[in-house]
Here is the input.
Amino acid sequence: MDAITPGLPEAGLLEREDVRRALSEHDFAAVFSLFKKYGGLSQNRIASACRLTPGKVSAVISGRQQVTSFEVVCRIADGLRIPGRLLGLAPRPWESRSVQEQAPTQITMEQGPEADGIPWRGDAAVDLAVDLTRSDLVMDRRAATRALAGAAITGAALLDPLEGWLQPVADGARSRRRGRIGIREIEELESTARAFRAWDHRYGGGLRRKAVLGQLSEVAACLEEHQAPRVEQRLYQVMAQLAGTAATMAWDTGLQRRAQDYYLLALRASHAGGDMVFGANVLAGMARQMLCRDQPHDALELVRLAQNGARHVAGPKVRAMLHTREAWAYAAMGRIAAFQRATAQAAEALHDVEDEDEEDPYWIGYFDDAELAGTTGGRLLELARREPKRCAETAAHEIRQALSRRGPEAGRSHALDRIGLAQCHFLLGDLTGAVAETHLAVDAARATRSSRVRAQLRELYPYTVGNGAARPVREARDRIRDLLSA
Here is the structure.
């Protein structure tokens, strides 16, 4: 077996009883030792094949370190060509496809329409929507695989073009074709956009993504015609809401760059439709994506841009939500005092909701005391990983508050809360509570199709590894592994 171009293991190696036992127990010290002894592999070749350092392999073999990451388990399976069933995983992609087709050198980023340099005009947003939906609706499986490799852009390349959001809408060329969309049709489109957003909030994932893209394509076609001014404005607002949902669905299926493309379209459409408040919401979504990509400084810039643009028009719920994104960025930077200040501002803004006469937009209805508690608990959990004694119990309290207040419509958030609470119990050393919460977390995760939920389960997985001697912990770990490998 070549470590650079991995092939199947030596004949009979995977039939050995000691090898199979080590694989089933995830005893990678024994696995590596047996592959060295009977497979003819050096530590350096094992390290190269599994994308580990030789020092890491040496530490695992000697027992100084354990393999606790689910991603590393998958890399070992792929690098050493171990069939998934022997490790409790689903069949690996290479088991049914050729190595050549899966070679990393053949994976390139799916190139989609770029929003950089496009003027901030309504007709330019329509053109962008047409190009994006056309390319996505005809995307085959190979193109989808390439799109998964597309990394989200960061820094000045992301932030500088967004400054146009603060400027007035530029005049664009008018179509000569006359449209026939009326208020009734607009209301039907708005209702559809609302239904798609509610479905995504409850279940997550990309199961209905192409349905959203199809509706987005239809709205773009309507905007290519000359509609009455009020109809046109509302069409742009519907386009923004559909594009925002398409962005979260793309992100939830791992299409990071595609998610950014749709966020940018949503921002441009909300700008063309004169909806600065929804535009601020789009920027907050982009900020959350940056936070999950470990780019807190970019996230903070996006939040500040949103706060600047919607300063005089945002209601209390939107202001509270923006403050929580701000607090999240501060927590990621380790700025505890700033995190506490922004969190207090979010709570203060949320308490102003009852004093407002105007009704909040439907898309911010999810942001309530439960959401604030869940978001705050999640940030405290991040701090607790560095200082468990100081923050873990407070994080658990906030997350419990969120769980007690959330409704069934917030399925994805409920699952994330459950996973976070399980981690809190592990950090506090409460294995009984941790195991119970892990089972609840897996049950909640099964009810969603969200890759974000599964990413958080991967973060929970290592907590279950160091306690492998305890049968309840081992059973909880097996349930996580079964779900992640499905």
Summary: Residues 1-6, 98-116 have pLDDT under 50 and may be disordered. DSSP finds 23 helices and no strands in the chain. The two ends are 28 Å apart (CA to CA). Residues 229-252 form the longest helix (24 residues).
